[in-house]
Structures are given as structure tokens and as C-alpha cells.
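Lecture 7 notes: from sequence to structure.
We start with the chain below.
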Amino acid sequence: MNTTATSTAPSVATVPSVSPRDLVPGVIGMALVGSSVTVSRSLVGAPLFASQAVRYAAAALILVALARVARVPLVRPRGREWLWLAGIAATGLVLFNVAVVRGVAHAEPAVIAVAVACVPILLGLVGPLLEGRRPSRRVLLAAPVVVAGAVLVEGTGRTDAAGVGWAALALACEAGFTLLAVPVLGRHGAWGVSVHAVWLGAVMLAGLAVFTGQPASGPAAVAAGLGSLTAGQWAAVGYLAVLVTAVAFVLWYRTVAAVGSGRAGLLAGVAPLAAAGAGVLGGGTPGPAVWLGLVVVIAGLALGLRGGDARG
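Predicted C-alpha cells for the same chain:
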């Protein structure tokens, strides 16, 4: 599939059901993202920008090494590609982390999670347009179903006006992580987009860590902050770097390139299910609403991923 932004005028076409082979990477990627919710809790007291900079720097090195082993060519961005890739890093990596951390100070975590769970609707509307297609009616019908299931799984919570604003920003950033990749996936592929977005994000976060550190800024303060991390927190950073970033990013972009951002967006409903599953492994017991949400998400995925009126 050509995912560049230079396609011809939008058109509607009947397409067959999506191949499971194309969906599996995205499902696994979103499951890993969902599992990060539980893991990230151990980093609440860690220096935000510094720990995330280490995470993305490590992920970038891992991605480059794996790409060489797999003999995947990585090309240097050119022209406007720098803007698209920097946009992915700034929104999907940096601002998203800020929105989540600042948001939970004004709202219960479920509020942020529910906002992010609405991303299939945005991707279903905007993604196909960037790919030169009309939004699929089937996907647009399925997206609210997936969102409703995710809301049942996540629940709701209390918030104030600031919390709503941060939740909306988190949603926009989550959508930007996929939408801004559409124009560059054609030339760079899943590996290239992942590598460049991750190292750019690491540079941005390192700069924020050095210049906006609290209570002190500068390299020495950043080093001191990282030195205060516990073994458990370093393990969390390692898990996020290897599985939630290096592995999940490549898997997710591979599915986006294969089936389109609109249909791939429906798989975002897998993340809250994975988060709920992680809670079960941690000793929690899901309630009836979680089980109902699971059924609703699966129904939405079945509806949106069948052959339909348009690809997207």
C-alpha cells in the first residue's frame, strides 16, 4: 500500500477483509502499549524528562542495531520529512508524556485513558484523507463501538477543566503519532519512521531535562536525578525502551502501512484490554463492565475489519 500524501483524488473502492497477517503486528504493538500503564506507575516519582530521554535513547540504539541485523536500509530524511518526523517526536512522544503526567494531577487516570481511547474516531476520519481516500463508512461505524468498549473497560473518573484540557491534548498527541507518519511511511517504512522519531524524541527530552529540571537544571542535576532511580525503576525504563518503544513502534507502523491508518486505528481498542489484563496478572479481578467492554471491543473490531466500502 502506498501511504504517501501524493496520491490521486479520494476514491471509494470495495476491498476484501484485512489479512490477519497484517493485523497481528498492530495487535501485539497495542497490547505492549497497554501493558505499559502498569509498568509506568513505578516511574511516578522519577524525573520525567530524564528518565524518558534515557528510554528513547536506548530504544533508538536498539532499533538501529536490529535494523542492521535484519539488513533493513535506513535512509536519511530530506526536506519536509524532517518536519513530519519531528512532529511525531514532539507530539506522540514528548507532549503525550507531558499531557499524561500533568493530566493525572487534575483528573483520575481513567479520564485520560478514556480520552486516548477515542483515537479510532480521529484516525478513521483524518487518516484516509491523508492517504488520498475517503473515510470508510464501515470504519466510521465501528470506531464508536470500539471506543464504547474501551470506556467500559477503563471506566470514568472525576476531573476539572484543566484535566479535560490535558486529556484532549493527550488524545491529539496520540492521533498525531499515527497521522504524522502517513506522509513518510512510503519512503522510510516502519523501521525508518520508528528510528528517526525515537532519536529525535530522545534529543528533545534530553534538552528539556537539562534546561527545565526541577528543582535544579543542568547536566549535573540530570545525572543526580538518574542516579536516584531504584533498580525497579531502571527495570521499568528498560521494559519501556525495549518492548513498548523499540518493538511496539515498528509493529504498529508496519500495520499502519499495510492496512491504512483508519483501520489500524481500530486496534487502539486493544490497549485498554491489555491494561486490564495486566491488572488481572497483578492480582486484580475484572468486574462485569470490563467483560462487557471486551465483548464490545471485539464486536467493533469484527465490524470495522471486514471487507467494506473503502479501505482506510
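Points to note: The CA atoms of residues 51 and 226 lie 7 Å apart. The two ends are 11 Å apart (CA to CA).
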